[in-house]
Design brief:
The protein is α+β, with helices and mostly antiparallel strands. The chain has a single domain, classed as 3-Layer(aba) Sandwich (Aminopeptidase), CATH 3.40.630. 32% of the residues lie in helices and 23% in strands. The protein contains 4 helices and 5 strands. Strands 1-2-3-4-5 form a 5-stranded mixed sheet. A hairpin with a 2-residue loop joins strand 2 and strand 3. The longest helix has 18 residues.
C-alpha cells in the first residue's frame, strides 16, 4: 500500500476539495436529513473560498494524498470562540474533515487532525473545538479518541411543524 502524504492545501487541490466537500455534505444528509444539503455550485464556492484563504495566517487546510490522489482534507482556523464579555483564550476551530470511505480506518483522519493540531500549537491556541452530527456515531467515537468531550449541545425545533 502506498504511503500517505499530509501537506498543506494548494490551489491545484481545489477540484479535489470540492468533490470531497460534496461527499461530506452528502454523507451528513444520509445520516440526518435535517442537516443542510449543498446549494447549487456550493462545492465549487467552498473550494474557491479555501483557495482565497491560502495566505490567511488564521486559516489552514491540509490534504491527505495517496498515489497522487487527494483522499481527504481538514480545515481549521484560529477564531474568537468566546464573546468579549468572557475571559479570552486563543481557540482553534476545526471546521471540516473528510476522508473518502475506501481510505478510512487507516489512520488518515488521525494524520490530518495531527497536522492541524501541530499548526494550532504553533498559533498558541489553548484548545480547539468542532461540531459533530449527533447521529454520526463513528465520528463521535473518532473525536473521543482525541479526548473530545461534549461541552455544549446544539438543539433545534422546527417552527413550521408545531414548534413554538
Amino acid at each position: 500500500m502506498a504511503e500517505v502524504t499530509i501537506r498543506q492545501m494548494t490551489a491545484d487541490d481545489a477540484d479535489a476539495i470540492a468533490g470531497l466537500w460534496q461527499q461530506l455534505v452528502d454523507y451528513h444528509r444520509r445520516l440526518d436529513p435535517n442537516l443542510p444539503g449543498a446549494a447549487h455550485g456550493g462545492a465549487k464556492r467552498y473550494a474557491r473560498r479555501l483557495v482565497q484563504r491560502l495566505d490567511d495566517p488564521y486559516t489552514r487546510a491540509f490534504v491527505a494524498e495517496r498515489d497522487g490522489q487527494v483522499v481527504g482534507f481538514v480545515l481549521g482556523m484560529v477564531v474568537d470562540l468566546m464573546a468579549d464579555i468572557f475571559d479570552q483564550e486563543p481557540g482553534g476551530f476545526l471546521a471540516d474533515i473528510y476522508v473518502q470511505p475506501d481510505y478510512r480506518r487507516q489512520g488518515i483522519g488521525h494524520m490530518l487532525v495531527e497536522a492541524l493540531l501541530d499548526w494550532f500549537r504553533q498559533q498558541r491556541v489553548a484548545y480547539f473545538e468542532w461540531q459533530v452530527a449527533v447521529r454520526n456515531e463513528a465520528g463521535r467515537a473518532f473525536w473521543r479518541s482525541f479526548g473530545g468531550r461534549e461541552v455544549m449541545v446544539r438543539m433545534r425545533a422546527d417552527l413550521k411543524d408545531g414548534g413554538r
